[in-house]
Amino acid sequence: FVEALCNLGAVLTALGDVQEATEVLNQAITLRPNTPQIICNQASILHRNGHLSEALEKYEHALQVNPEFLDAIVGVTALLEKTNRLTEAGSWLEHGLRRFPDNPDLLLVSARLARREGRLDDAVNVLERALQLSTALDTTAAMHILLGQLHDRLNNSARAYSHLLEGNRLSAQALGSKDE
After folding, report:
1. What is the pLDDT of residues 71-110, one digit of tens each?
2. With left for phi above 0 and alpha for psi between -120 and 50, is residue 16 left, alpha or beta?
3. d(Cα 138, Cα 72) in Å, to the nearest integer?
4. Alpha-carbon distance 172 to 163, whole Å?
5. How far apart are CA 148 and CA 143, in angstroms?
6. How many CB atoms lie within 10 A of CB 60?
7. How far is the CA of 175 from the CAs of 16, 41, 77, 99, in angstroms?
8. What is the pLDDT of residues 114-162, one digit of tens each?
9. Is the dihedral of CA 163, 169, 173, 175 positive or negative?
10. Comparing C-alpha atoms, which of 83, 18, 11 is closest to residue 49?
11. Distance (Å, rounded) from C-alpha 145 to C-alpha 135?
């Protein structure tokens, strides 16, 4: 039953019904307060709605419950990168990549960190590898867009255009599939 509530919360979040998703996840968390997936789903909602400090607390709580929980590692790493806490993000990224070296979401965060550190060629290499592993439309779209931006900064306009075009196409496709 709790798993069903957790999945329903994730679906409602994806459909944009944040209020209903929050209520469902709050029900689930009262039934099983230390379930990392429920905690991460709550953190994801907070993150999407700009409540970054609360989201970070939730991700950290999920990691206290299970330090190897992939969704929490990805979430905390991405959030720390987003809030310019790059040293902490790098530490969590290293931890995550030791355990999950081929995870496309972690590789995407790795590329973002490399880009912020000015290691553009490294970022491109990581993203090229991650593209081969990714199956999620939204992640693949984000990778293409970031590759386009990187190639633009590297003065390779043809590759930049190609990746940006593909990223936008995949983004539109992902949005279309959510409407169905």
Report:
1. 999 999 999 999 999 999 999 999 999 999 999 999 999 9
2. left
3. 18
4. 14
5. 9
6. 16
7. 12, 20, 25, 31
8. 999 999 999 999 999 999 998 888 889 999 999 999 999 999 999 999 9
9. positive
10. 18
11. 16
Q: Are 73 and 106 in contact (CB under 8 A)?
A: yes
pTM (two decimals): 0.86
DSSP codes of every residue in the chain: -HHHHHHHHHHHHHTT-HHHHHHHHHHHHHH-TT-HHHHHHHHHHHHHTT-HHHHHHHHHHHHHH-TT-HHHHHHHHHHHHHTT-HHHHHHHHHHHHHH-TT-HHHHHHHHHHHHHTT-HHHHHHHHHHHHHH---HHHHHHHHHHHHHHHHHTT-HHHHHHHHHHHHHHHHHHHHHHH-
Is residue 45 within 8 Å of 18, Cβ to Cβ? yes
State yes or no: pLDDT of 2 exceeds 80: no
